Amino acid sequence: MLNPFWTDVVGSLAACLTTVSFLPQAWHSFRTRDVSGVSLGMYSLFTAGVALWLAYGLLLRAWPIVVANVITLALALAILFMKLMYGRELLGSEPKFAEPTARPEGAVRCTAAKLVSDPNNSGKTDTKH
Q: Which long-range contacts (CB under 8 A, 24 or more apart) does 78-82 make?
């Protein structure tokens, strides 16, 4: 049977690493208010799951699980809150696209009809079939 000390050490290390992994996302979202890469559905389900892990740890009195999930729940709720608050600012805003760049002479471009060579870089659509 494993020594309970080493079991707690492994559990604590796992809890620390998985909890700390949320810091970069939370900090980035807080600093930039950019939550475009955060899925509302995923974070909602994840936050509910973390709350259940916290309850599970409390029922078992497994303190590495409790401490890790209290911190993770706080970070997940913060990210979820930012998604709800900052994500609304983006509704109705125009998508931003990069400016088109000029093609080098003789570049190949794709049209709905077929690939055509454009030696003059004229930008005209050649619809040869």
A: 78/26, 78/29, 78/30, 79/22, 79/25, 79/26, 79/29, 79/35, 79/38, 79/43, 80/40, 80/43, 80/44, 80/47, 82/29, 82/30, 82/33, 82/35, 82/38
